[in-house]
Amino acid sequence: IYRSLWSEMLDDRKFYFPIKPEEAPAPGAAQGGPFRGMQMRKWHPIGPGEAVVMDKDQPFVGEQSPRVDLDPSTPHGIRQSGFALVKGKKYTGHIWLRAAPGAKVKVALVWGEGANDRQTVALPTPPSTYKELPFTFTAQSDTSAGTFEITATGTGNYHIGAVSLMPADNLDGFHPEVIAQLKQLHSGFWRLPGGNFISNFNWYDSVGPRDTRTPDFDHTWNAMQTNDVGMDEFMTFCKLIGVEPYITVNAGFGDAHSAAQEVEYMNGATTTPMGALRARNGHPASYGVKFWDIGNEPYGPWQLGRTDLKYYLLKHNEFAKAMRAADPSITLLASGSMPEE
What we know:
alpha+beta
């Protein structure tokens, strides 16, 4: 979903990982990331590395947020590089900031090495509590090595909560050109969450404002998940490409109660607790999701929360009972191994 369907350009936009000075790769080191060769872009300091501290006392989201100590004359901040920009294309974003009085914060989009190969936007002075500040850019050159910078001068420090950068022509956060291609496939239905990832997925964390959803670590694929595409975004995606949604509940580390509440969130009336939560998140109408899958590859020793067949049967039936109590009209699917497995 991320990189291919979702149009967010910045990796680790909620700062799950510490921010460290850039290091040259070791000779012969393997390139690429933990999942299908994708390498995660990282944040690096602008100015002295010790000026950027990961604050764990009052994080904006997750376990930590970067605090940047200021200098009156030298810009201090962070940057991320390595994404593509298109000449003449508009990009929009926002950043959550809080700062000491007098901090002068700027964001910049960079497309080359020259002094003029950038656009810089001066932001309003942030208050002492987190505030969302928008910005826009227009790239003046094509590049596959674009850079986004956040810097400031002044005294004291400033904190960065979360930041986002997307092409302005995104469709509810998705790439319009990819949506156009997928519509032509006329798929029957799409499943989310898919694969072994589901057994460590907490759906409660995947709803509500995206900027305050906690990023988490996917132990199946050994990768950080930004938690930006959740249940409501999935339903928007299905509507955009014209397919039936098919949802898998976590029957690995999850439990029947959370699965039933997930059904209620997607299908329940606004008079139910989870239906009311969906309405508060901006979606009062029931989604009416028909197809539901209980777990993923539960027979495999690679599956988080795997049990033997005896206990799997008990667990599966407990899930089925609870989910049907939340919505008797749903169609349930079970997962089983093929003969060659």
